[in-house]
Structures are given as C-alpha cells and as structure tokens.
Design goal:
alpha/beta; single chain; eight-stranded antiparallel sheet; globular; 11 helices
Length: 414
Amino acid sequence: MIKLPELLAPAGTLDAFKTAILYGADAIYAGLPGFSMRARAKITVDQVRAGIELAHAAGRKVYLAFNLFAHERDFENMSRVSDVINYLCPDALIVADPGVMMWVREHHPEIPIHISTQANICSAESVKFWQRAGARLCVLAREVSHDEFKIIRARCPDIGLEIFIHGAMCMSYSGRCLLSNFITGRPANRGACAQLCRWKYDVILRECESGIEMPIEEDARGAYIMNSRDLCLMPRLRDVLESHPDSLKIEGRNRSEYYVGTVVHAYRAAMDAYACDPENFDPSPFMDELNRLETRGYTTAFFDGNLGPDAHNYETTRSTSVWHAAGVITAVTPERVTLELRNEITRGDKITFIMPSKTNGVSVLLPEIINAQTGAHLPKMSAGQHNSLVIPRAWFGDVDYAAFVPYILAYKHK
C-alpha cells in the first residue's frame, strides 16, 4: 500500500468535528476562539475541547489555529490564551506571526508548531527559515505552483509540507486582504472578512474637468471583477500525491457539516482508490461527488503557474450546483431514521445518503413526509427550528441498514 499524506479537515462547529471524523479525516483543524482567522466561528472553547476528545478517541489529531497577526493588546491577553491552550491540549498550533511563534516556543515548548498559509511561504528558503525557527510543518501559500512545490519538497526533505487542495480562494495574496478592513471595518485576519471580492461592482470613469461621472457599460461577463472560483485539485490528485506532500488541507471552518462531510468523503475515497491501484486511478467519480456541493465553480488556481481563464466567475457568486443538502441523520433506531432538514423536502422527493467508507450512496424515495415530532403526514416540510422527518426502515429495502448512524449526510436534486 502506498503511503498517503494526511487528509486535514476544517471544523467550525462541534457537528463538523463529528462529521469529519465519521467521513475519514486523518486530522482536523479548528480555531482558537478570538485568536485565529476564524474568530467569528460559532464554536466555544468547551466545544473545541469536546471535539478534540472525540478526535483523539478515534485516533485522529487536532491542530489549533492561532494565526492572527498580533498587536500589542493581543500580547496583554496571552496569559488567558495560555490557560486555554493548556485546557485544550491540541496536537499542534498553527501560527503566522513571528512574535506569536516565539511566545509559543517560550510558554508551550512541548507543542509542535505549524506555520500558517498566512505567512505566505512560497520558497524553499522561507521554509528553511521557519524550520530553523522551530517549525515542524509549513503550510505553503496557495500561490505556489505544482512545479515550485516539487522543488521545495526536494530541497526541504525533513520538514512537513502542507498544501490546500479544496475550498474558497481569496483574491488577495493567501488571504492578506485589507478591502474588508478599509470599507467595512471588519478585519479579515480576525475571521471577520465581509468578502468584498464577492460583491458586484460598477466601474465609474470620472472626467476630472467637467466632473461628469460616466459608467463603463458591463459586457456579457458582468461585473464580478474579483470573484474567484473555488479551488479544487481533485482532477490533479494523482500529480499531488506523487509529489509527496505531508498534509492535504481542505478550507472551510465557516462551512456547514454537509460541506465538510462531502469534501472529506470524496477526497478520502479518491486517495484510498489511488493507493490501491495508482495505475488505473480515475478522479471522475469523486469529482461527480464534489459537483453536488454548492460551489462558485471550480479552478485549479495556481497549480500550473499563472491563473488561467477558468479562475474567476465574472457573472455571479451564486452556486453552480443543481444539488443541495437535504439533511443530517440525528438518530437511528431499529425501526427508523430521523433526518434533521437543511432544505425543504417534498413528498415524492428522492434523497441520497453519503455513506462513510463507501463510494456509492444510498437513495430513498419518500412517499410520505412524516413529522418526527408529531407523527403528522405532510405534503412538505421546511428546514429550520430543528425540523425533522422520519424514514421507516422498510423504505430502505435491502440496503445495509446497520450502516446508518448519526451525522450521515443526505442530498437531493434542487
């Protein structure tokens, strides 16, 4: 069996922790609330600890993002941060600021340090700098091409190297954007980015002498001038694996458990398929699964060097997928499955469950919509307020019913 890199999944909620574990992530990264790029993530310190305990019980690792660029006021709070780190006991800390790194080395010398993509590492020399400073692993900038990665790998054989393989792209250099700070006062480095690159813009030409403002007419491409498509390296996964990275990272600590589970499942299955039969590996079936996500469209971004014409979507920021999340299993008994809804479900809908450790899903036609709380038979049911429906075991036919457990995801055609 070929040695595979670590598959690293995001978790912005405790449910995302559980879903990532169920669907095969080797490791999970979460934010240190208030001190990372996802400071606004809806997860508490106690929930992070619960997620770490679940991950460790399953033999998985958890890395804690501590990748803010620290101001003087932040160092005034470091004693509290130290208490939180001791309480959580993560497997590594992800940092970007040299001052924060030196603080970690002084106050928590036992914890491995990973250097965040926020450090914009694009060369072997930068990797060696951080290695000499005490880093165990470097997360390379998204702007590093595949050919550059192979050079860095050859020149830096004795330190961990991590690359992003899937998720949202920032129009700025590895997320170091100030548009949000300037226009809305929401700092991107504190996880509060307003995503101004996704806004629709009118370009105005101002004639200085007359003071006349002349709008430049939009063409068929529209005016979403900074809206990047989402990164997806599934089509190039063979090349990625053959270059021997140590960790493959999925972006998305602000994403739903449906996103986390679907992406982890697709890459887990693809990586395992490659390891079993590299000569005949075909990413197409796993790409089909990723196409069921709500996405802005996909790009391989800087993988081949400069950005190609597929990198941006100038027409819309809306999802290009014809599928959406149906719900998440919350309970299983010998008689029925309970599905908490994420979108409206109508009588006659066919939903498909994404089964852990299996490539093919399980589809079920819903002849009735049965309210889990009241038992009422309804024509349809909307999501929200933990609305749930029940699916009797008999509706699953001859499938392996024992495979159904909480946190299995389901999707449906829009």
